Each structure stands twice: as C-alpha cells, then as structure tokens.
Amino acid sequence: MHNPVSLPPGAHLLLADAPAQLLPARELMAFTLASHIILVPMGVALPLITLVMHYRGLRRSDPTALLLARRWSAVMAIQFAVGVVTGTVLSFEFGLLWPGLMGRWGDVFGIGFGVEAWAFFLEAVLIAIYLYGWRRLPPRTHFLLGLPLPATALLGAFGILAANSWMNTPQGFRLDATGNPVDVDVWKAIFTPMFGPQYWHFVVAMFMTAGYVVAGVYAVGILKGRRDRYHRIGFAVPFTVAAILTPVQFVLGDSIARSVFQKQPIKFAAMELVWETDTHVPEYIFGRLHPDGTVTGGIKIPQLDSILAGFRPDTQVTGLTSVPASDRPDPTEATIVHWAFDIMVIIGSLLGLLVLCYAWVVWRRRKRPAAERLPQSRWFYRSAACAGVASVVAVECGWIATEVGRQPWIVYQNMRVAEAVTSTRASTLWTMFGVVIVVYVFIFGSFLAVLLKMRTRWRLEDAAAGTATPAEGPETETPYGPRAAVPAASAGTGARAGEDGTP
After folding, report:
1. Do 255 and 197 form a contact (C-beta atoms < 8 A)?
2. Residue 475, class by beta-carbon neighbours within 10 Å (0-12 exposed, 13-18 middle, 19+ buried)?
3. CB within 10 Å: which end of the chain, N or C, has fewer?
4. Considering the domain boundaries, does residue 372 fall inside one?
C-alpha cells in the first residue's frame, strides 16, 4: 500500500495516489453511520422521556399519560431492534473496512466497543421486562424496573463516545521501536481530553432531538385540529424536556468548540475556514474555501472568530497552513466541515428562539387552566413540527464536522485513513455498498411499515373506546392494544386518544 506520508505537498489521499479501495470504504462507512445515527436519539433518550410520562401518569393517576407511555414503549422496542441491526453492521465494518485501525489500535481503544456491547445486552433485557410489565406487574414495581433503562442507554453512548474521542485525542499508550502501542493505560485511553466535552454535548443533543421528534408528531396532530388532552400532553412533555435542555446545549456547544480550538486546532481551522495563523480573524457564515486560501461567498464578520475563540480580537487562531497539506483537510473537506458546523449552529439558534417563544407563552398563561397554557399559534406548531427534522439534521452535521474535520487522520496524528483501509478490491466494496443500500431501504421501510401498522391498530382501539372509562385502567393491556382473549370488562384503552390514532 502506498505510504501517504510520502505524498508531495498539496496532494490528497483521494487522488490517484490513494488506494483505490479508500473511496468506496469511506462512502460505505459514511452511509451506514449516517443511517444509524437517525435512530440513535430515540435509542438514547426515548427511555427517559417514556419514564417521565409514566411517572406523570402514576403520580397524577392519569390514564392518558399512561396510555402515551405504553405506546411510546412499543415504539422504543421496535426502534431498539432496528438500531441493534444497524449498529451491528457498523461494528463489523470497523473490522472489515479498517483492519489497520483495529489490528494496531484495538487493544488501546477497543474497550469502548465492549462497553457498548454490554449496554446493548442490558438494554434489550430491560426493554423486554418493561414491555412485559404493562400487563403483569403492579404499577409501582413496573415503573421501578424501568428506571435502569436510561442508564443503560447512556452507558452505550459512553462506550461509543470513549472510542471516538480517543480517535480525536489519542492517549494512554506509548509506541515501541516498531511503532506499535504498548503499556496501555485503559483509564487514560477512555477519559481523553475530548471525552467530557464530546460526551455531554452528544447526550444532550440526543435528548433534545428525541424530545423535538416526539413532540413534532403531536404538533402535526394539533395542526390537523386534534387539540384533545391526548395530543396536548403528548406534545407538552417531550417538548418541555427538549426546551429545558436547549439553553444547556448552548453552553456545552461553546465548551466543545473551545476544546477543539485548544486540542485540535487544525480541525477548528477547518470549521472556521482559517487559512493562515493570525489574530483579528474574521468569522465566515458559510462561504467556500479555495486552494489559494481565499474564501468566496458567505457573510464575513470582521474579528469575530478571534473574539469567539478567546474573547479578545487579538486572540491568535491557528490556520490550516500551519501544517503540511498532507496533514490537514483539503479545501473541499474544510468547506464541508464549515458548512456542517454553520448549519448545526443555525439550527440550534432557531430552536433556541422557538423555546423562548414557548417559555414566554406558557409563563404568561401560567394562571390559566392547563388546557389553555400551550401556545395557540399555528405557526408555532408548524415550527415545532419542523424542529424534529431540523434537530436530526443538526445531529448529522455535528458528526460530519467531527469526522471530516479530523481528516486525513483516522487516529489523530498517529494513523492516516489510507493506512487503515482494507486491501479488499474496490469493485467488491462498491458491490457491498450497493447491497447495503438495498438492505437498509428494506430495513427502514419495514420499520416505517410497522409503525404505521401500530398507529392503525391504535386508531381502531381509540375508535372502539370512544369516551368510555376503562374498568381496570390501562395497565391491563399490552402496548399493542387489547388482547382478543381479554374480557370486555378489562380490555379498556385507559383514555381516549386522538381521532387520527397518533401514537
């Protein structure tokens, strides 16, 4: 394999000198990661949001809240099953596509994947118990058995973020005479300089995204005229969770940006399109970086980048040209990183404005009955419906900025991507890529079909229930609707849901 260190200045790993299999390997990994991350927010955060609704139902003896929690737990289980499939594919791809990475560095950072595997196992068991308990366990016992679920979800995120943060700021080892890592310190390998900022920024992003996505479903129902209690609570609880965390994310986002500025200055230069090391550096909103270092398009704000980096206009910001061309993102990659970062920040800012609107309306109406405290504006609910999709886009952009900004390194300053790639023929990888696309279309299509089937069943259940009050409450049913064998006296739905059967 060609050694990328010998590339002449200005050459790039994706040109003719790069291994032919590098491009399909990167495209395949990018596709599967981008697909998997769509499911991650619900996998990490939906257990806690469901338990918040469950607690509300038990605390207030609210059958509508219990009905929502039960239905969300069904969605949680289906989503988890799909997430396990896509996550397993990613795990295999690390070994199949990047054997140089796993073969050389697996002993150093592989513990993160082990932690994630145990978290997946525990979460699967706990979800099964939680679903089982809706029909068969006392309400309090059932709720208490569900409490470990959020912790296991966070444990899985811990494992993945430990591995990824190590790739960004590797430590906890020394290299022997042959360049192989020895004397591994597991704790240092896990708790790297970027671990804390990355982990908390990621976790809060997951809770925000899940809250906005779930609330967006009920916002659509409200826009269709379903302003019943089912839709109001289904919207208010997850949206409030996301709203509380949104200002927290601004603080965490600033923290991780400063960590990148200090620990990964070249990535920061790509995020901000800084070509030469200088002070009084301007901030570009969008724009395109060219090979000669000029930036065209976008909005230029003088000195702002230096001010944001160090609170002073004379703060020095490291530029891309401070390292050889072979050790930094090329202009196209830097532009991609910059746009991804800007889109993420803009979406976060718009979500902040939406939260301010929500908080202002709720505060002004705090003395009114609960049914009248939520905003009434259709534009608000249109924005809330879009917030779920926008937050997923922001998560995707965050990962693009993280991964593309580290190029050409797969292990920062220790191993290049081209050194880690498989020796499998490029044609085979392209074929594999095509097969994966077909399989993923089937998987996600099946996931959507199952959700629609569940919604239809819930719609029929709600229509049959009408306004009747159940005899034994919602805990006498499975999450998927009443059992055919259950007597009519014990097969009530717990509360009337929206007419459209929105989950």
Report:
1. yes
2. buried
3. N
4. no
Burial track 413-451 (b if 16+ CB lie within 10 A, e otherwise): ebbbbbbbbbeeeeeebbebbeebeeebeeeeeebeebe
Going by DSSP bridges, is the β-strand pair 283-285/288-289 parallel, antiparallel, or unpaired?
A: unpaired
Token representation of residue 329: 């993102």
The structural domain count of the chain equals: 1
How far apart, in Å, are the Cα atoms of 195 and each of 166, 206, 259, 492?
7, 16, 10, 48
| Whether pLDDT at 344 is above 90 | yes
| pTM assigned to the model | 0.85
pLDDT tens sequence across 89-133:
888 888 889 998 888 888 888 888 888 888 888 988 999 899 888
pLDDT tens profile 315-339: 899 999 999 988 999 999 999 999 9
The 3-state DSSP composition of the chain as helix, strand, coil percent (nearest 5) reads: 70, 5, 25
Helix (H, G, I), strand (E, B) or coil at 276: coil
What's the rounded Cα separation, in Å, for the pair 152 and 45? 11
Q: How many CB atoms lie within 10 A of CB 148?
A: 17
Among 210, 199, 208, residue whose Cα is nearest residue 47: 210
Residue 120, domain member (yes or no)? yes
The sign of the CA dihedral 198, 204, 208, 214 is: positive
Q: Comparing C-alpha atoms, which of 466, 486, 381, 474 is closest to residue 74? A: 474
Element (H, E) at 415: strand 415-416
Cα–Cα distance for residue pair 71/477, rounded to 1 Å: 11
Query: What are the backbone angles phi and psi of residue 335, rounded to the nearest 5°?
Result: -65, -40
> Helix 22-59 vs helix 63-97: angle between axes, to the nearest 10 degrees?
160
427 domain residue, yes or no: no
Residue 17: other Cβ atoms inside 10 A: 15
Residue 275 CB coordination number (10 Å): 19
Residue 4 maps to a domain: no
How many residues in total does the chain contain? 503
- Write out pLDDT tens, residues 156-171: 889 889 989 999 999 8
CB 420 within 8 A of CB 100: yes
185-189, long-range: CB < 8 A, 24+ apart: 186/111, 189/108, 189/109, 189/111, 189/162
